[in-house]
Hints:
Blueprint: E1 13-29, H1 31-35, E2 43-44, E3 51-64, E4 78-88, E5 94-103, E6 118-128, E7 131-138, E8 144-154, H2 159-165, E9 169-174, E10 177-184, E11 191-200, H3 202-205, E12 216-229, E13 232-233, H4 236-240
Parallel strand pairs: 5-6, 5-9
Antiparallel strand pairs: 1-3, 1-12, 2-4, 3-4, 4-5, 6-7, 7-8, 8-11, 9-10, 10-12, 10-13, 11-12
Amino acid sequence: MVAYGSEQRVRVPALRARWLTQAFVHWPFPPERVQALLPEGLAVDEYDGTAWVSLTPFLMADVRVPGLPAAVPGLPTFAETNLRTYVRAPDGRDGLWFLSIEVACPLMLGARAVGAPYNLGRLRVSRHGDTVSYAGARWSATPSYRLVVRPGEPITPRDRDVWLTSRWRAYTRRLRAIWETPVEHEPWPLHVATVDVLEETLTGAAGLPPPLAEPVAHFSPGVGHVRLGFSRPRSESERDQ
Length: 241
């Protein structure tokens, strides 16, 4: 059974935030097609012999750099959307690899310093009755998406639900090195979700073929105590394990 909840403490965070109104749309892909998009040193992680890629739009709220006085407000709430897959490092530890990251806040582009693939764009999140709508388009290129989901009842996550939504580190590549960023937050409160509308060109722009099946979807109202640790390059000994 996959553990549900952070497996590590981020004692000295580089960033604090809340992640709100998050949708998860997951597609299955042939492992070899996803592996071809990964850098040397990372292997595609599989669930029952299949690789998965997830589109995860959400709102970033109360983004703060630790150490600022409480009277100093954090950044205004903004939208972000990740296209991610699931990987393992040579030491066996699992994590995320971002195929692309769309963001509406220019300050987040600073994470490009460790290889995070941020793209600045026009993004929005809105509610209409019992549906939640997400849309975005890059400023500098053509990839875009439009997603409308209908959240349902809360669920007790099963093994695949946890595997698809819970990862506690992200990997990036910069200057021929793999960098690792730890993440800590409480377990996702998950709901079933129905996809009413899904139009996107992000997967094709990332180099992916059509998926093997229709997507699996989840929705979460969010988590409130996100702590991102400082990114660090993995050492030679870690890469060689």
